TrEMBL record, chain A:
Gene: pstC
Molecular function in Gene Ontology: phosphate transmembrane transporter activity
Membrane topology listed for this record: Multi-pass membrane protein
Family: Belongs to the binding-protein-dependent transport system permease family. CysTW subfamily.
InterPro entries: MetI-like (IPR000515), MetI-like_sf (IPR035906), Phosphate_PstC (IPR011864), Phosphate_Transport_Permease (IPR051124)
UniProt organism field: Promicromonospora soli
Lineage: Bacteria, Bacillati, Actinomycetota, Actinomycetes, Micrococcales
PANTHER family: PHOSPHATE TRANSPORT SYSTEM PERMEASE PROTEIN PST (PTHR30425), PHOSPHATE TRANSPORT SYSTEM PERMEASE PROTEIN PSTC (PTHR30425:SF1)
Transmembrane segments: 33-55, 81-114, 126-158, 178-199, 253-274, 294-316
Superkingdom to which the source organism belongs: Bacteria
Chief location bin: membrane
Keywords of this entry: Cell membrane, Membrane, Phosphate transport, Transmembrane, Transmembrane helix, Transport
Protein name: Phosphate transport system permease protein
KW Transmembrane helix (keyword) present: yes
A GO BP entry: phosphate ion transport
Automatic annotation (TrEMBL), chain B:
Organism: Promicromonospora soli
Protein name: Phosphate transport system permease protein PstA
Subcellular location, record wording: Cell membrane
Function per UniProt: Part of the binding-protein-dependent transport system for phosphate; probably responsible for the translocation of the substrate across the membrane.
Heme keyword on record: no
GO molecular function annotations of the record: phosphate transmembrane transporter activity
Length: 330, 316
């Protein structure tokens, strides 16, 4: 009897759910469109950044050499716009690549330390400590670089110049204040350590446990296990981490602006003052006082920086994304 | 008996052979372990040195006056100026940036986690990652280029800086909020659907409610990330010595820009016997402001971690 009584009861709730609860009825659809719109806004923002930079850079890119020379301070005579941006791009790349060369081995060491060497319990806290390096504002790095690091590194640069002066990077007259690209590269290296470490750490931690245990079971020492199981597995991850670090170093402004004594040469002498300048620092130095065509010229150099970093970052992210699909981890 | 000892010896020998590597390999292992520990210690050197320097150089300048006075009408080596205008400017501009970024960032994260399928979602994921790498100065230039279209060249006010910071902040918020939303167990969503709750209400009342601690942490860490940005504000907001509470009108000072300006002022010239003149006051101001800025950043970081620890839903 109870079974025949129960069927009529659920009718009312079913009808009510029909009217209000269907997942694509009423506000649910609106909500989906709102969130999708927010997603599309990200793409629109990136497109807008590119568009507005191009729009504002265009007058400078199409102006004649004479007009540019008249409007832009420190514009070399009789040169095209490309020749004006050239040394800046060179300085930016040189500083970033040097920083990357200094930072990558150390960052890989730290990542391995946290993933495989440090005591388990401490690993997370030590990871926070490295992340703290990323929390410090770049302007404070600049202050510290000038006040503490430069005097500390000065004797090192003198020594390098004395013994390795034949090597093009270390040639020239050593700047007594050490406010040179070499010091800048060290500061940039410290600043990009956390991002390279964070990405490589994640990759190293994903190494299949079975690979590691297999290596150990075959009698490998811990380092041999790392070399044969962890490093080959993490190679593409480390490459993309390094490229992300490169992207950061390319765009870093304040530390360079405060430490480097700038010049506009295609020069490899990183121990000598007044040789190179980076795009970001150049913009920050001149933008507050610029007007008219000079603003357009500065935005054009900014566009160059944007294109370079965008290319580096997209390449790095593409490697990471491809790795996710094909790695043996999942 | 003798046979027994010899097999013992053999076992021991085999064990020794198997458990100890040959000296060369053992040496390599040791060296690499030392190098890897060394890499970590090497990275701690700048961290400790920097924090130590900022703490001990900056602490001498911190006082009530320093925190509550602005630099209006302060010239030369006059030590009576302060950073009040810069602190308020930083808080206002970062606050505006947060108001812009957080709703957008959380909505994008919801889109990616709850709805994201197909090419648009893949494109959004990819370009959010790419956006995290936009140089800060380019974000500043973008904001200036955007606003000069409406307000003409030379427009400098707080909101421009807030927009520039938002460009930097949105991808950070999206990335970390996405991770937090992914942590919400699917069973909760399914239980809500089974009870007939519409999807949007499930997201707002169940998913966001569960993840609220993680989302707060994400937002606090994102704020800590952009509060120290200098270059975009230098380009977009300009500098001033006075207090300005209005982000839609006039230049504003911020702490990072203040540090840079004071640093680039260098030494003041003091006449012999001049009262009320400290030659390196600008540098002292810079260090004092740096200590304040780092204190704010660290507080935000610690608050973020504590919120996550204390208010995270108890999961078994």
């Amino acid at each position: 009897m109870t079974t025949t009584d129960s069927p009529p009861a659920p009718v009312a709730p079913v009808r009510r759910r029909r009217s209000s609860g269907d997942t694509e009825r009423g506000f649910s659809r609106t909500f989906r469109w709102i969130t999708t719109g927010a997603g599309a806004l990200i793409l629109a923002t990136l497109a807008a950044v590119a568009l507005f930079l191009i729009m504002r850079a265009w007058p400078a890119m199409t102006a004649s050499e004479a007009e540019l020379a008249a409007a832009v301070p420190r514009y070399p005579d009789d040169t095209s716009f490309i020749a004006y941006v050239g040394p800046l791009v060179f300085g930016t790349l040189l500083a970033a690549v040097l920083a990357l060369l200094l930072a990558t081995p150390v960052a890989m060491g730290i990542a391995l330390f946290i993933s495989h060497y440090a005591p388990r319990r401490l690993a997370q806290i030590l990871g926070y400590l490295v992340d703290l390096l990323a929390a410090i504002p770049s302007v404070v790095y600049g202050l510290w670089g000038v006040a503490v690091l430069a005097p500390m590194l000065s004797p090192v640069w003198l020594w390098l110049n004395e013994w390795f002066g034949w090597f093009p990077l270390f040639a020239g007259d050593v700047s007594p204040t050490a406010r040179t690209l070499a010091t800048v590269a060290v500061v940039l290296a410290v600043m990009i350590l956390p991002i390279i470490t964070a990405v490589s750490r994640e990759v190293f931690l994903q190494t299949p446990k079975l690979h590691e245990e297999a290596a150990l079971a075959l009698g490998a020492t811990r380092w041999e296990m790392v070399r044969t199981a962890v490093l080959p597995f993490g190679r593409s991850g480390v490459i993309s981490a390094a490229m992300l670090g490169l992207g950061r170093a390319l765009g870093e402004t304040m530390a360079v602006l405060m430490i480097l004594s700038p010049g506009f040469l295609y020069s490899f002498k990183i121990l000598q003052a007044a040789q190179q300048q980076t795009i970001a620092a150049y913009i920050a130095l001149d933008f507050p006082e610029a007007s008219g065509l000079a603003v357009n010229a500065l935005i054009a150099t900014g566009l160059a920086l944007f294109v370079i970093t965008l290319a580096v970052n997209m390449a790095a992210r593409a490697i990471v994304a491809r790795r996710k699909e094909f790695s043996g981890a999942n | 008996m003798s046979a027994d000892t010899s097999t013992m010896d053999a076992t021991e020998r085999t064990r020794a052979l198997l458990t100890t590597a040959e000296p060369r390999r053992r040496r390599t292992d040791r060296i690499m372990a030392v190098l890897i520990w060394g890499a970590f210690l090497l990275a701690m050197v700048p961290l400790v040195s920097l924090l130590w320097t900022v703490l001990f150089t900056g602490a001498g300048r911190i006082s009530i006056d320093f925190l509550t006075f602005s630099m209006r009408g302060i010239f030369g080596g006059d030590p009576s100026g302060g950073i009040y205008h810069a602190v308020t400017g930083t808080l206002i501009i970062t606050g505006c940036a947060t108001l812009i970024s957080v709703p957008i960032g959380i909505l994008v994260a919801i889109y990616l986690v709850e709805y994201g399928r197909g090419p648009l979602a893949r494109a959004v994921t990819f370009f959010v990652d790419v956006m995290t790498g936009i140089p800060s100065i380019v974000a500043g230039l973008f904001a200036v280029a955007l606003f000069t279209i409406f307000f003409g060249p030379g427009a400098r006010f707080g909101l421009i800086g807030a927009v520039a910071l938002s460009v930097l902040m949105i991808p950070v918020v999206v990335r970390s909020c996405e991770e937090m939303l992914k942590l919400v167990p699917n069973e909760l969503r399914e239980a809500a659907y089974a009870l007939g709750v519409p999807k949007w209400l499930t997201i707002v009342r169940i998913v966001l409610r569960t993840a609220v601690a993680g989302l707060t942490t994400s937002v606090l860490l994102a704020v800590a990330r952009v509060i120290g940005e200098t270059a975009p504000l230098l380009v977009a907001v300009g500098v001033t010595d006075s207090i300005n509470f209005d982000p839609s009108e006039g230049r504003m000072m911020t702490l990072p820009v203040f540090i840079y300006r004071q640093y680039s002022q260098g030494l003041a010239t003091c006449r012999e016997g001049q009262a009320n003149c400290v030659a390196d006051i600008a540098l002292q101001n810079a260090w004092g402001a740096a200590l304040t800025l780092i204190a704010i950043v660290m507080l935000l970081n610690i608050a973020g971690r504590l919120v996550n620890r204390w208010f995270a839903p108890k999961t078994r």
